[in-house]
Amino acid sequence: MELIRIPRIMQDTAKEHMLRGKPIGFVPTMGALHEGHLSLVRRSKQENRITVVSIFVNPIQFGPAEDFQNYPRDTEGDSEKLRKEEVDILFIPDASLMYPGGFSTHVKVEGFSDKLCGAFRPSHFRGVATVVTKLFNIVNPARAYFGQKDFQQTVVIRRMVKDLAMDIDIVMCPTIRERDGLAMSSRNAYLNEAQRTAAPVVFRALNEASGLVESGIIDAAHIQQKMQERILAEPAVSGVDYIGVYDPITLNELSELKDEILLAAAVKIGRTRLIDNMLVNVKKER
Ligand code: AMP
Fold first, then answer.
1. Among 115, 119, 266, 241, which Cα is nearest to 187's?
2. Is 128 close to ligand 1, i.e. is its CB under 6 Å away?
3. Choice among 17, 34, 37, 124 that is catalytic
4. Closest by CA position to 26, among listed 166, 127, 142
5. How far apart are alpha carbons 96 and 73 in whole angstroms?
6. Residue nearest to atom 7 of ligand 1 (CA)
7. pTM exceeds 0.90
8. Which protein residue's CA is at the shortest distance from atom 17 of ligand 1?
9. Mutate which of 27, 29, 41, 206 to test ligand 1's pocket (most atoms within 8 Å of Cβ)?
10. Around 44, how many Cα atoms within 13 Å sit in the side-chain half-sphere?
11. pLDDT tens digits for 41-88?
12. For the chain, does the N or the C end have fewer beta carbons within 10 angstroms?
């Protein structure tokens, strides 16, 4: 595995691979890698001659009161995991090279960036869209891999790629979960034992709601209320940003359910913010 830290070198290396007819699969991450990340890496390895993984804790996608400073970092452990997966290139750029003095261009995907998580993290998706654009320009991938766990992120990136005519396939991979259903996340490391025991409540609420939808209930308010009751009944839950039923294409909240729907929640357990979601097919009326 080649380790590259300089964007310019990454860009030249990527160009060489493209010229030799070796399309690149790209997995952008913030590190502290777990099986969720590795599932994207494995998918990329299956589908591309070259796989590039980036690790970059992107300062501009964190709000001033968020966890940028404390975000878990484990470059050595991450490198070891990626070496075992036989990743071709690990790209770890320094923030000073990604955002040198005078940096002043941002990408804002309007209409999606202020919904769901965006309503609570105002400049988050602007930071994500900006860094992903820059990483795409450096890594020059044919395909890029994102997790369904961050469903809204994938929606925002897909819109951006389409709007800006970027010739990159965006592949969304399923959420990988712990045995008790908790979606794997680097932020799970913040949870103490009691909080970790309580955390699967989000998955259970989504799962139960999914069961209700599959049994034929199409009243979104009822589904929303059931999820909320389930989550608020857990004493370790210290706050709820949103819990609801959404259109997976527009991310608008739904009142009546049809076709495919997105159940999504963002919940605080102690000071840790956890997100999760599920896509559910609504039964057709007979
Ligand atoms: P992050 O390091 O949190 O920025 O995540 C990097 C990529 O891994 C994003 O595309 C995430 O959606 C994806 N990812 C994170 N957790 C999971 C998971 N549990 N299952 C699948 N993909 C995940």
1. 266
2. no
3. 37
4. 142
5. 17
6. 29
7. yes
8. 36
9. 29
10. 33
11. 999 999 999 999 999 999 999 999 999 999 999 999 999 999 999 999
12. C
